[in-house]
């Protein structure tokens, strides 16, 4: 997507504004990377790391760094399955819709 011609073509097909930058996608997702890890926790402390859509697909290195830090501190890191984060709703001002998603996550 960093190639000017290719990104321009994709923007035209998808309907993005020509001056808008396209998001980059990592070669791996956070979940794929975590599944390959064989880190054994040093103690019984457990932490849940919620990964939103952007951390999962676009900024996986942020999640990977958080995972490495937490495991280095001795935590067992669990990335729970959950519905979408609501971050996209918030970016458009749909606060009520975004508030419903954490409730769905907690009861599922």
Task: Give a description of the structure.
- With 108 residues, this protein is mainly α.
- Helices cover 50% and strands 6% of the residues.
- It is built from six helices and two strands; from the N terminus they run H-H-E-H-H-E-H-H.
- The chain has a two-stranded parallel sheet.
- It is flat.
- The mean pLDDT is 81.
Main sheet makeup: 2 strands, parallel
Secondary structure: helix percent: 40-55%
Report the uncertain regions: none
Number of strands: 2
SSE inventory with pairings:
Blueprint: H1 4-14, H2 30-35, E1 46-48, H3 53-58, H4 60-72, E2 76-78, H5 87-91, H6 95-107
Parallel strand pairs: 1-2
Give a nutshell description of this structure.
Helix content is 50%, strand content 6%. The chain contains six helices and two strands.
Spell out the key features of this protein:
mainly alpha, 108 residues, two-stranded parallel ribbon, single chain
